[in-house]
Amino acid sequence: MATEGNELGEFLRARRAALDPREAGMADDGRPRRVPGLRREELAQLAHVSVDYIVRLEQGRTRRVSRSVLDALADALRLAPDECDYLFTVADVAPAAPVRHAGRPEVAPRLRQLLDTMPDIPAMVLNRRMDVIAWNRGAGALLTDFGVLPPAERNLIRLTFLDRAFRSLYADWPRAARDCVAVLRMEAGRNPHDPALSALVGELSVRDPDFRTWWASHQVRGPQQLAKTYHHPVAGTLDLNVQQFSVDSQPDQQLVAFTAEPGTSSQEALRFLLQWYAGPVADQDDDRTRDPGKRH
Q: 106: which residues sit within 8 A by CB, 6+ positions away?
């Protein structure tokens, strides 16, 4: 499944279908509703545009939308801030930038050094597709030994859907998985011509029906501070804060760290896990395929 195409129209249709007409202030006119959500004429009324214009937007026959109309559509659809950002991104009429076939992402040596000097905090570096491009020993103990995976499989979204052991770590897998899809959908709006992202979406759409369903819903979300609960096979239940930090020298990378609240059982469990895990951090510059059965 390609990530490019009529993203604007599909997003508008999905958000229109998801909005309860009563929440949008529409009175019940007694007519039966054949589809969920707002009718096109109701969205047109709320956004102060013609029904034909809404039809052309949803069918992809026009993308030249003014900022004032986009603001009106966002208000009418009651979009959250991340959804507004996505709307403006996919409605951009600027010529698409040439596709760059980037090589393997580089992580600054000082950033790798920072990871290694955080022995009590599981941490890793991700790119916008959520590829894991660097990690420390703690991240390997908490999530999985990324070093035994081929580089192409070191992706958090791919692992969340396709790796049974990784999937079982989440106390609330459906919520975590939907969040992953929303983040990936946001990135697809920013970079619709990314071949690696298109390949990832295509693989997951074919192999996992839940991903296919949630991808079609057009939910979007940007990075935010999260709290997640993990059921670890060694450490037990861990309630952790997931902190995300931008990397100034690499705008497409972020540092992600996992911390527990001081004085909690989760802090004790995390301390035990990090002491238990004695395995070395694999050579992250070695792209040779390793034995996928070797897990700690």
A: 250
